[in-house]
Amino acid sequence: MLICERTSQLEPSNTTDEHNWAEAARSYPDIDNAPHFIAQGRQNTRYTPFTTSATPDNLQSRQLVVYTTVRQYFESTSQEPLHIIINSTAGTCKSYLINCLRLLLHGSVRVAAPTEVSTFIIEGRTLHSLLHFSMRGDFKEMKGSNLQKMQDELSSTKIPYH
Asked: Which domain of life is it from (predicted)?
């Protein structure tokens, strides 16, 4: 989708405050598809299984503590929930740690993030997509086939990450 062709389009012009934005938008025929851009991209993309070159051998000390904690929890019979928050700036290998944990836990984990950009980096899903929350209107109780679909998708999940 092309929003503007040149920076000069953003420069002040001799127009009045009564600029006709609707007329300007007509010069971009794909503008009506903008709200559906991501959904269309997902439909046109073939599913590829998760693959990574990440290995726990390359984790740094603090990452290894998290990895070991999760591994021990996963191998135990504990019924207590495990709560871990991994918070850091960009470029600190959070996605590398997530990939190591995905390998460790195989199909028992679902990876989700709050934004499309972050899901792209970790090959996950948005939180609202994973939990089948509608982004339009008020939150409504999930029932019927939608509830069953979500339960089926999450049935093998032992530890959700976000």
From this structure: Eukaryota
Q: Name residues whose C-beta falls within 8 Å of residue 78's C-beta, 6 or more positions apart in sequence.
A: none
Convert the pLDDT of each residue in 121-133 to its tens digit: 888 888 888 877 7
Q: What is the DSSP string of 10-41?
A: GS--S--S---HHHHHHT-GGGGGGGGHHHHH
Q: Regarding the domain delimited by 56-161, which CATH topology (the fold level of the hierarchy) does it fall under?
A: Rossmann fold (3.40.50)
- Report d(CA 54, CA 100) in Å as an integer: 6
- Residue pLDDT, tens place only, 88-136: 888 888 888 988 998 898 877 788 888 888 888 888 888 888 877 777 7
The residue ranges of every structural domain in the chain are 56-161
- Candidates 1, 68, 81; CA nearest to 33 is 1
With a cut of 60, say whether residue 14 has pLDDT above it: no
Distances (CA, A) of 32 to 11, 16, 112, 129, 136: 25, 26, 28, 23, 18
The residue among 69, 67, 156 whose CA lies nearest residue 107 is: 156
Q: Stretch 46-66: mean pLDDT, rounded?
A: 81
